[in-house]
Amino acid sequence: MEGPLQDPYASVAAHAPGPRAQAGRAARIALLAVALLASVGFGALVVAPRLRAPAPASTIVARPTPALLVAIRDLSRLETTEVHVEKVVDLADRQSRLFGLVQATDALLLVAVGHVTIGVDLARIGEGDIAMDPETGVARMTLPAPEVFSTRLDEDETYVYTRKTSLLARRNEQLESRARKEATEAIEKAALEGNVMARAKAQAERQITALATQLGAKRVEIRWREVGGGGD
Known about the structure:
Layout: H1 19-51, H2 67-75, E1 77-97, E2 102-121, E3 130-132, E4 138-143, E5 147-153, E6 159-165, H3 175-191, H4 196-214, E7 219-224
Parallel strand pairs: 4-7
Antiparallel strand pairs: 1-2, 2-5, 2-6, 3-4
């Protein structure tokens, strides 16, 4: 009679793993832990930027200078009127001679012809002096008062009509220069008389209105600053 069957694996004894096997297992566990931590850290790096508040976008707003203001300033000095004036200056230099007993005279008569240019200095217009309503097309502007740009003598037409020097008088070499200066001042003063400034304003309004119309204005309203009024 045969004996009971034996488990073929019964003869295999259960042995505790050796030191080398334990070291290999520990190394594998350590590698898995490092890999897990690395994957978690990388995920945190990817997700973290998404969780941050978005940086505010910077916006640059360009405010264009009105085309009408630029165009008018480009005109700079708008010469609107030129006045032709003739003036006669009688100038004498009286001199005392012989201890005041005799009066000697050096005199001349100057016929002066001059030109006075009057206009509007548009460079003094500021941004607050011009406004244009895009809905109605009305342009409103405040202009500086007309002024004298230049006063000059016409050298071809200005001449000394007479020059008389008494026997005992000493010829004054500055007399003609003084006469010319007085003539220039008198011509400028005469040019400002009457309605010259009104004519200068009317001419400036016509030119400015034509320019504003070309730039799209349907109607132009112009006011004038007082003489000596401020402005840029």
